[in-house]
Amino acid sequence: MLEGFKRFTSNKGAAIGLFILLIVILTAVLGPLIYSDSPWRMVQRPFLPPFTVDGLPLGTDALGRDVMAGLVHGARVSLLVGLVSTVVALVIGVPIGAAAGYFGGLVDDALMRFTEFFQTIPSFALAIVLLAIFQPSLFYVILAIAVVSWPPVARLVRGEVLSLRSREYVEAATLSGQSTFQIITRQILPNALPPIIVLASLMVATAILLESSLSFLGLGDPNVMSWGYMIGTARTVIRTAWWLSFIPGVAILLTVLAMNLIGEGLNDALNPRLSRKSR
Amino acid sequence: MIRFILARLVKAAVILLAIMIFNFLLIHAAPGDPAAVMAGEAGATDEKFIADLRARFGLDQPFAVQLWTYVKATVQLDLGYSYRQSMPVIDLIWQRLPATILLTMTAFVIALVLGVIAGVLAASKQGTWWDTVISTLALLFYATPLFWVALMASLLFSVVLGWLPGYGYQTIGANYTGIDRVLDIGKHLILPATTLGLFFMAVYMRMTRASMLEMSRLDFVKTARAKGLSNGVIQRRHVLRNALLPVITLAGLQAGQIVGGAVLTETVFAWPGIGRLLFEAINQRDYSVLLGVFFVSAAMVLLFNLITDILYVLVDPRIRLG
Q1: H or E stretch covering A221
Q2: Which residue in the set B140, B214, B305 is minimally distant from A257, CB to CB?
Q3: Hey, is the C-beta of B301 within 8 angstroms of any chain A C-beta?
Q4: Are B137 and B203 in contact (CB under 8 A)?
Q5: What is the DSSP letter of A48?
Q6: What is the CA radius of gyration of chain A?
Q7: Is A199 strand, coil or helix?
Q8: Residue B69 region by backbone torsions, left for phi larger than 0, else alpha for psi between -120 and 50, else beta
Q9: Strand runs labelled E in B28-184
Q10: Assessment of whether the complete model's pTM goes beyond 0.90
Q11: Which residue is closest to B279 within chain A, CA to CA?
């Protein structure tokens, strides 16, 4: 694991990703202290371009709201939704995959058909339908993203558990009288952790993209400022104030890029055998 | 081959049935009376409409009978009535479906062809600046929000440069016929299809590159080389053919994402497909349309999967179906 950490930090892409992510995290944590006012408040005349007025580095939007304040508060939402929905997806996917891999047979068949079903239905359309039916709020946004993103987790965990369950230390644990639950959680899953961590980091990136797409369509929580919402409202004025759509998009791009770079760095660091093969 | 396709069709039918049941449960899980939910804001004041819906779902009947009624109607492609658009949902979808099929298929072909070419190029020039440029671009495309790329592309190529139309399906009022009409639609198609394909192009490129490099190290490549085959023949006939398999598998798995991406692309480019219909339905809380489009888009994904399954069989040298 320590060697893996060294490999991770010596990876140029991962270092860049980590650097960008740290900035985004700092913005999300400290930003709202500086921009403590609501990002919805109108502060100046609308459509002020960036770098023209002191105190409003990125100008104002169509309703005279501070774009910088929106960006700062949006960072919070993106990271929160990305992280929490990934955790929820893991909570759904890991037990399903573990049970399918460990018990095999009919259980495996049933659970995998279930997973396949969720993998086949168009996930974005499903998220839209879920949010349109259950009123958009942060809670349902996170839930909808988790519901459409758990199947790869289940498949990955199933595969890992399948290959680990016949190991000798698992047999030893069985013979020593440990319960099935203990064997899965204490013996098998810790060894399946590295690929799960890699997948989870990439899922955070996908979740951030999904959240922004949903907010862009007007399916985000109407009470929180998010990057996707900013682009969605700026869309109608793109001919006259293109920067209002451009700026939040760059923020999304950089954050997602950072998460992907970190995910790949983790992959190289934690699965050295795999990464050398694909290089 | 025919037996294989039949087996796949049966599987697709089972999944479609599951989606019908899923839709049905969804309506029931929503807060409030299902009829009121389906009517949405549109019909909330119209008693007759809600009564119609109650009858359609058989809400006074036992749960199982309700489910049976719903599935029977859906199988007969009765997807309900859109109060907002004063039209049966299925007619709305039929109107819009060709545009979406054209858009998604074009995007899929662009993504697959360009992605594979770029991947092969990057793999064969591994470590050179070709590889660096292609890999970096792929990394960027992979992280770019689709709707944002669509907006920026329409801003740049349509508003600023004026090269391509950034709006709609054909020139309004031009009334082109024959080849002119095809060219006109083609021109309108370029921006939406390319932006929709961009993300997937990145995915296929990365997969092709990784898989080409992996295959090149396998023994059968050494054998081919020892046989004296030229490098080009080895790359094309042996490496690429095997390297394409995981790409095709991935393409099948991602069919759903292309259909989902169409919602965003069609919304930005005002492309009159079912994605845009879905967007309109969100704003109008038109649930019959919402669930209808969801059902049809799932069917489209199954069709995509079927195509990739057949492609897989055709490409894989190890599978020979009688």
Answers
A1: none
A2: B140
A3: yes
A4: no
A5: P
A6: 22
A7: helix
A8: alpha
A9: 81-82, 87-88
A10: no
A11: A217
Q: What is residue B122's three-state secondary structure? A: helix
A131 and B283 Cβ atoms separated by less than 8 Å: no
Contact status, residue A89 vs residue A146, Cβ threshold 8 Å = yes
Instruction: Say whether B143 and A130 touch across the interface (CB within 8 A).
Output: no
CA–centroid distance for A64 within its chain: 31
* Helix B178-216, helix B129-143: angle, nearest 10: 120
Q: Which residues of A196-220 are buried (b: 16+ CB within 10 A; e: fewer)?
A: bebbbbbbbbbbbbbbbbbbbbbbb
Residue with tokens 């079903």: A117
Paired tokens of B248: 């095709």
Q: CB distance from B89 to chain A under 8 Å?
A: no
Nearest chain A residue to B285 by CA: give it: A132
- Which residues make Cβ contacts (< 8 Å) with residue B23, sequence separation at least 6? B70, B74, B291, B294, B295
Per-residue pLDDT of chain B (322 residues; tens, 9 = 90+): 778 888 888 888 888 888 888 888 887 777 666 666 666 555 555 677 777 777 766 666 777 777 787 888 887 877 777 777 778 888 889 999 999 999 998 998 899 899 999 988 888 888 888 888 888 888 888 889 999 999 998 888 888 887 888 777 877 777 777 788 888 888 888 899 999 998 889 988 988 888 888 877 777 777 877 787 777 777 777 778 788 888 888 887 777 788 888 999 999 998 999 989 998 888 877 888 888 888 888 888 888 888 888 877 787 767 665 4
- Altogether, the residues listed in chain B come to a count of 322
- What ipTM score was computed for the predicted complex, to two decimals? 0.85
Structure token pair of residue B6:
């039949």
Tokens of A206: 């996908």
The distance in angstroms from the start CA to the end CA of chain A is 21
Contacts of B39 in chain A (CB under 8 A): none
